[in-house]
Amino acid sequence: xxxxxxxxxxxxxxxxxxxxxxxxxxxxxxxxxxxxxxxxxxxxxxxxxxxxxxxxxxxxxxxxxxxxxxxxxxxxxxxxxxxxxxxxxxxxxxxxxxxxxxxxxxxxxxxxxxxxxxxxxxxxxxxxxxxxxxxxxxxxxxxxxxxxxxxxxxxxxxxxxxxxxxxxxxxxxxxxxxxxxxxxxxxxxxxxxxxxxxxxxxxxxxxxxxxxxxxxxxxxxxxxxxxxxxxxxxxxxxxxxxxxxxxxxxxxxxxxxxxxxxxxxxxxxxxxxxxxxxxxxxxxxxxxxxxxxxxxxxxxxxxxxxxxxxxxxxxxxxxxxxxxxxxxxxxxxxxxxxxxxxxxxxxxxxxxxxxxxxxxxxxxxxxxxxxxxxxxxxxx
Length: 380
Ligand SMILES: [Fe+2]
Hints:
Blueprint: E1 14-17, H1 25-30, E2 35-41, H2 44-47, H3 50-60, E3 64-71, H4 77-90, E4 94-99, H5 101-116, H6 120-125, E5 135-139, E6 151-156, E7 161-166, E8 174-177, H7 187-207, H8 212-234, H9 238-258, H10 262-274, H11 278-293, H12 298-312, H13 320-329, H14 348-356, H15 358-361, H16 369-379
Parallel strand pairs: 1-8, 2-3, 2-4, 4-5, 5-8
Antiparallel strand pairs: 6-7
Helix pairs in contact: 4-5, 7-8, 7-9, 7-11, 8-9, 8-12, 10-11, 10-14, 11-13, 11-16, 12-13, 14-16
Bound molecules: fe (ii) ion.
């Protein structure tokens, strides 16, 4: 930001939201190209019949479809690079990411490699990427927000490190948000992806000094996630799924403007070392991170506590970290980093890496090595 009380926003993604929105995919893609690479995970979309359904919708519209279904839950640099050169060889017009954050993130990296012909590590260091092959994002989880952000995160397995690709040209051109696609999601993945969405909205509000657009998106996302996360996980009814799909989009829009903070800085490092679910990692860290940030963000912390209490119908009087804990305690999943198989004596490597992460540097309160240790120990 140039000076206090100035703000800016940029949201180039066209969101098409509806139950059954995936059915308009063929017509929408045909407006921007005649051939696609459909990027998705290794098993679940195929098993659920979603890959076949999407291929049929595209082919009926006259779009030529190629499928790249090799994406890991924490996508690796080499997998994204291979997909990028595959798309380049095929000379496809459009890249579609179908799945959770991993598939949509990968579609962005694949488009960057396919367009430029550069290796993924070169692409990630490129400060000004050109206009890329159009990206269409179709989320099947409600959490990552990748459908409306320019951010993608990839794992360097050799360095055991996650790093992010960000460019104004990696925003999806279209996000097709169809809550019905999230219906098959298990209670565990509904819970942890929803925790990610809530963490995005909360970190976005805490990070910036003044941005009413971010506030509007993030506040609504907190209300929706607080109201619907538990019922989406336990009942999975249409109203809850719809509420969480919208929370994910709004929270994604918010972080696309201002980035994330310490929960994501440490969560990225944990994910690089342990190959764990991103939403679980950031969600388990969030209460302690809120407590850490509250002395310099008192008013915003109170706002967050009030929004969660209103959405979840809690009695007032909770602090922000207590309200988050209370909400997560009602989810039918194990809690804490221990539940992900992480032990205290394995954390040294995480601490050093977390200090260097962009999200840690973006945190509103300056973070020391000791602070990261403290957050991690209290989140076990
Ligand atoms: Fe996240």
